[in-house]
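LOG
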Amino acid sequence: MTHDIRTLSLALALLSVTACSTGPATVASPAAGSSTVADREPDEYEDDDVLLRDHDVPHVVVEEAFVTASTPDDNIDSPASWMQDGRRMLVATAKATDQLVVYDGATGARLRSVGGSGDGAGRLRRPNGVATVDDRVLFVVERDNRRVQAFALPSLEPLLAFGQDGLRQPYGLWVRPHGNGYEVLVSDAYMAGEDAQGDDIVPPLAELGQRFRRYQVSERAGTWSARETGTFGDTGAAGAIRVPESLFGDVDHDRLLVAEEDVPTGTRLREYDLQGRYRGRDVGAGQYVAQAEGIALMSCRDGSGWWVASDQFADRTVFHLFDRTSLAHVGSFAGKVTGLTDGVWLDPRGDSRFPEGVFYASHLDAAVAAFDWRDIAAALELPACAR
């Protein structure tokens, strides 16, 4: 059995935040009896407790609009949102309890949970990446069921599951409207066994050509279907992804950014095109210190905008912003309390609470933090973004 250093770091960070935070959120300590031992994932290392306070990373501080109630036993990983009758809804994956947790997207109040352990329709095993599209469908990656499951919005009734025939250890996904339905790209962190310490062994470069799988999902007369349409992954030393999870695309610029989470190799974002070809350029090599994790995109009507990507320090996550077109670094921010971020989600649409959009980030594996885009833009002196 392997002791999870990341979980121990989480416990210390939770205690620190509870004792010291003056921000808007209260984060409780892990519940009594909760386990401090868990299976280590491919992106977890003995030095996962990299702390921002120990590193000189230039950034501004942006106070969180809210942080949801802390539920450490859930092991919250990734958020997404949708609009329902003018009301923003927020959902997050709970890896340990095999659920989807639904919150009010404007206040962070917990509303309900769905799922539960199992492999039938609507049941989940280790849900990780999540995405919504068209306020119509929610897709969630299940690592331990080796599949992607789709749910109808807003009911969260299951529609279909796919990928079981090919996926081996899926984690992240990106979804876009495509053809008469949706294209779903899924990252697959298959490994070549474990070493004597129980850590995953990254496959040889020649075996990394299936790091990502494509699926076309369609609906006809109320019946949903999915088919695999290909795999990709660079197998060169410069462009290969040793440890994959997060990915996000920009159709207007034919660009796909994927996170290389392998710290020994050098964590950063790699630029692919939407056909899955490495473009020979990396992003953030001079900014990332801890570990590249979640990726989101703020798109402006004129083609400009910003990529927002998390650097996973255990105490306070740093979010790096890169120019949408040039990929140049334009600034970084951290919240007052938000730390150990895995997944992120950016909803650019306005409502009464967040007129210019909202950025969500998982927090300490136990909650979701929300940032008002107006606060981010003001702190980094970003120009207005027409959407």
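LOG (cont.) second protein
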Amino acid sequence: MQVLGRHRRGRLALTGLAATVLLAASTGPAAAKPRHTDPLQQRVDTVHDTGAVGVLAEVTSPGTHDSARAGTAKVGTGRPMPRNGGFRIGSATKTFTATVVLQLVGEGRMSLEDTVEQWLPGVVQGNDNDGSRITVRQLLQHTSGLHDVLPEIPALNSAEGYRAERFRTYTPEELVALAMNHRPDFPPGDGWSYSNTNYLLAAMIIHEVTGRSWAQEVNDRIIRPLGLRNTSTPGPSPSIPGPHAHSYAAFSTHTSIDVTALNPSMAAGSGSIISTTHDLNRFYAALLGGRLLAPAQLDEMTTTTPAPELGVRYGLGLGEIPLSCGGSYFGHPGELLGYHTWGGATRDGTRTAMVYVTSDGGDDTQQAMSTLVDRELCRSRP
């Protein structure tokens, strides 16, 4: 995770959030002559002008729905972006995982103050890692200090690694063991550092508490009740079901390759979910609108702490991001190999905005995406 610099491959993170949020709050979109009168289409065009292959955005509020797209679904085809196409949502998955954990807390089946050792004895140990000192709250809040395992996955770090290992299946236990080869970044509770390892462990704890997999719980508690028909937990499947745009990654070189096929098992609980802008808007509206969590648990989720790496605030599986018109919104941008998404909902869930692109998102792209979400959420203000 970097704040002011370029992103690091495979972080599934709130990439470059501090810089882009500050820019969105102080400046307009990157200079580009408007080609349409519709503000959302103009902002989508601005994102596309930064070099993205394809862009799609969708905004909802009570009684209204608007979407816009630019670019192509696949390089060299001229085929437009599918209106309700699926894509890997990366770290927005963390909000789903945190929601399930908080539902279990609300049911009295576990506590945020439970330790990792209580539920996963012997899993977090060695090299000064100690699961008896790390709470579930610290996992969801990224204050555990645990090393992030995702940068060590070859398929996420180079074209050669991608070609060799894009179909490899990982188990959560295997991934956590890799993280245990490293000392923690700081003692539990003594700092803030974004780590996908936290949410791998949260998914494992969900399994221990319920006796059912993380995927089953997400499906039964969130996806099916909300009618998210185009959202799925793909397991080791490397394909994206239904209409979708291809994704592209350059791996810090000057040449992008098609990286659409990927076994996302390395990101179970942290970044593997496939969804659409429509479904994500429904999810965040329901979550912030109080349909998924009791008030006490929603308060826990939206009580934020400074996240110095990001320059904003972070709750439990949610970022709190300032709006240029005042106040803030909650969401969780994400990335997984060429699919970058940014969006969220106003505090009461009445207005949502979601945008994704299908190629590497540099600083200009991230700024344009952040600005789009900011302006669209501010449009509901008087």
